[in-house]
Structure to design on (302 residues):
């Protein structure tokens, strides 16, 4: 059986990063800032995640940086709470098949963020356990929010609910004030919504969906990244009730899953899990839903 290798490396200008690999894939987490997973990809191949070249390697300061990669927030989004800088070192430790990352408690919110990252021994699969801990003296209403910033040039596939509810509505779609329904990057299909990342188009676009299938995919570099999570049909979610959101601009596409809203009591924690899969030899899909059906079936998502 392939062993999981964990060791410290220099990466993207940060002196203290941790690489986890099974020989097939690897992830790189920063410990100078974060918690952030700045890289995910096939070993010795391209990074599927975005890296902001003008920001990677930075640390310290009072300004929030997106950096790229994968991060943990708490929803609903609001300034300044969502944009508290995470520019300080994080603690890390080795756990079975991976690592644990722990941020110092946010002094403004009294919320502590943790990620546990574990990797399958023999396939391109990673599990992320996101944890928010209330270390304050009063309850906080929030939802865990996992945001993955993907590299430029790809196309996202998001499944639409297909449940037959007769005369009743069967899905929830939410839009942000800056999102244009006729944006050239989005295709509103019958079974799928696709979203193209266009490096030449800066205006942002975002939508949210009651994603009952609990997955979204992003094709790029001849590969396909898949994010999976548990959608809870009867739970109350943020932003009018969506468990999935996605955002794009000229330098990235962000794939976001959310847990249900909770009243987090002092001393309590809430967790939200994701599974990441990576597939090779994937051609860029068209908007033909029959082709997308075949692709989704081939990788075992149907």
């Amino acid at each position: 059986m392939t062993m999981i290798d964990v060791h410290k490396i220099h990466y993207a200008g940060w002196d203290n990063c941790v690489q986890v690999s099974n020989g097939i894939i690897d992830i790189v987490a920063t410990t100078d800032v974060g918690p952030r997973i700045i890289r995910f990809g096939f070993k010795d191949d391209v990074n599927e995640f975005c890296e902001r070249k003008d920001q990677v390697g930075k640390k310290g300061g009072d300004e929030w940086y997106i950096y790229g990669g994968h991060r943990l927030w708490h929803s609903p989004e609001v300034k300044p709470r969502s944009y508290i800088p995470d520019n300080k070192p994080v603690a890390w430790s080795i756990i079975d098949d991976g690592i644990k990352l722990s941020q110092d408690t946010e002094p403004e919110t009294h919320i502590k963020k943790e990620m546990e990252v574990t990797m399958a021994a023999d396939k391109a699969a990673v599990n992320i356990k996101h944890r928010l801990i209330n270390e304050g003296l009063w309850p906080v209403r929030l939802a865990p929010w996992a945001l993955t910033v993907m590299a430029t040039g790809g196309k996202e596939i998001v499944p639409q609910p297909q449940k037959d509810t007769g005369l009743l509505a069967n899905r929830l779609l939410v839009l942000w004030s800056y999102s244009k329904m006729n944006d050239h990057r989005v295709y509103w299909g019958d079974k799928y919504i696709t979203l193209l990342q266009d490096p030449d188009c800066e205006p942002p676009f975002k939508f949210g969906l009651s994603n009952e299938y609990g997955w979204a995919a992003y094709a790029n570099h001849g590969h396909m990244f898949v994010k999976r999570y548990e959608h809870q049909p009867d739970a109350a979610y943020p932003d009018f009730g969506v468990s999935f959101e996605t955002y794009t601009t000229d330098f990235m596409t962000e794939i976001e899953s959310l847990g249900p809203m909770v009243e987090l009591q002092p001393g309590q924690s809430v967790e939200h899990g994701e599974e990441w899969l990576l597939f090779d030899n994937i051609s860029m899909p068209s908007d033909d839903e029959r082709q997308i059906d075949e692709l989704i079936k081939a990788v075992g998502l149907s």
